[in-house]
Amino acid sequence: MSQAPKYKRILLKLSGEALMGEDSYGINRVTIDRIVGEIKAVLDLGVQVGVVIGGGNIFRGVAPAAAGMDRATADYMGMLATVMNALALQDAMKRAGIVSRVQSALTIQQVAEPYVRGKAIRYLEENKVVIFGAGTGNPFFTTDTAAALRGMEMGADIVLKATKVDGVYTDDPKKNPDAVRYQTLTFDEAIGRNLKVMDATAFALCRDQNMNLSVFSIFKAGALKRVVLGEDEGTLVHC
């Protein structure tokens, strides 16, 4: 089988919850090391990788813990959580021998570079992984939207959304054993069927800018590599 990747540059969206593993909170060391191993397998193919990471394993602006808080304040706290995750991911990559850079949409110069588009593209061209923290830097926008935005700014070939489920299904596969995975979908079909692939803003951004999206499970061994090779893995959402 050909090992030539279908995509040259990808933007990987990782949720904060993905870092928890089986834990109920925080960062699971074994899990983050395994995720880094999946990313390394793609880097070894010569693919350039940008990562947008969420913060739900630490704090989320719309979570019950934020109830009663000013929404903007809660969202800024969530952005700081994503920076913590970005630093943890960078540290795990360093242990795996991967060179990476953290860029933050919020200015925290002691711990991360400020986001500069030209610099980030140069890092990708040098085959360094760029980890984007702090979402878009604005409250009321999710890290899904940040992934769509950074994907376009970086000139990525595709946005890959890593989830707990191996694609988009006709129904919740945990509740309905007869649920069927979509191999491909158009954005209009996903919106029309009210499939919760990403939040509506991110969805619209991808559709309007002709940015394809693939949804797959980061917990399925080798799934990221199979998506990058163009194999039947996950669900491809296209225009």
From TrEMBL:
Top-level lineage group: Bacteria
Subcellular locations according to the entry: Cytoplasm
CDD domains (alphabetical): AAK_UMPK-PyrH-Ec
Binding residues annotated for ATP, in chain numbering: 13-16, 56, 60, 163, 169, 172
Keyword Transmembrane helix attributed: no
Keyword vocabulary terms for this entry: ATP-binding, Cytoplasm, Kinase, Nucleotide-binding, Pyrimidine biosynthesis, Transferase
Catalytic activity of the protein: UMP + ATP = UDP + ADP
Pathway(s) of this molecule: Pyrimidine metabolism; CTP biosynthesis via de novo pathway; UDP from UMP (UMPK route): step 1/1
Keyword Transmembrane: no
Record domain Aspartate/glutamate/uridylate kinase: where: 8-217
EC number: 2.7.4.22
Entry GO MF terms: ATP binding; UMP kinase activity
Single Gene Ontology BP annotation: 'de novo' CTP biosynthetic process
Activity regulation (UniProt): Inhibited by UTP.
Enzyme class: transferase
Binding site for UMP: 55, 75, 136-143
One GO term describing the cellular component: cytosol
Stored Gene3D superfamilies: Acetylglutamate kinase-like
Quaternary structure note: Homohexamer.
Official protein name in the record: Uridylate kinase
